[in-house]
Amino acid sequence: MRALINGADGPQIIDTDNPKPGANQVLVKVHACSLNRADLLMLNGATHGFQSAQANQPMGMEWAGEVVELGVGVKAWKVGDRVMSAGMGAFAEYTLGFEWVMYPIPEGMSYAEATTLPVAIQTMHDALASNGQLKLGQSVLIQGASTAVGLMGLQVAKQLGATVVIGTSTNAERRARLSEFGADLALDSRDPEWVQKVLDATGGKGVDLVIDHVAGDLINDTMRATKVAGRIVNIGRLGGESGHFDFDLHNMKRLTYIGASFRTRNPLEIVQVIQAAKTTLGDAIAKRALKLPVDAVFAFDDYARALERMQRNEHFGKIVLQLV
């Protein structure tokens, strides 16, 4: 099979053997795979949980395709099923999927659309429902809502019963589109009045829950926009991995600040996260109520342009590599 690896001189496509499914695994013929920011980090030598861009190992962590072979013990799937998943070795003609962590692709959904969903769905369900403990009727702020995961967060918050969902983006064009994905209010976090606008939208109290993709020096304003005894779940650090933190403000508002990285979770914990997302959001997925924009589709051989587009941060939604 053909696979995209991180070679000695950077990314390149090589010919290699098809993987063999083990117990509780299936072999999937990949039709489309999508890029994530973690792919760029791994190209620079970082690891992402159990994944890294190792020599001669296919890159990528999100794919959609067709089951072509079953390993021992697989009961939930059959040959011919259309499936999507987050998993290692996505950038290849064939990959392995574990029985418990795949989603069925809804009828009528293309492979290009399907490959955009798994990472965002399970990340946002875990952040909002499991870590954020979002309750029916509460309010949510998504900091950095124009990222793919942020766009999904707006939608999942609505699915979970949030009444006021606020999204921020510093890009005016992207900010104007947040309402398409469930935002009741879209704000620019560079606006000196943005915190007051959050307070105005929540009766002066602040939001119950923040999903934060930004962090950095924005953290203190984020805390000011959160209600007393509210929760902040950190997902990303687009604004910086460090910054001034007002501990007195954090203490006086009695805020719960939660880190929600997947990188330090064991395989059982990952399975539990995915099963929880499938249980709660399965109907919404099947009805195609959760969606992400496909920013661009590149042929598999055109991977360099796809990676460059992500590096330049020109995209809105997901960048997809098409294999079939």
TrEMBL record:
InterPro entries named among the record's database cross-references: ADH-like_C, ADH-like_N, ER, GroES-like_sf, NAD(P)-bd_dom_sf, Zinc-ADH_QOR/CCCR
Domain of life, source organism: Bacteria
Pfam families (UniProt xref): ADH_N (PF08240), ADH_zinc_N (PF00107)
Annotated Enoyl reductase (ER) domain residues: 7-321
Keywords, sorted A to Z: NADP
Protein name per UniProt: Zinc-binding dehydrogenase
Organism: Zestomonas insulae
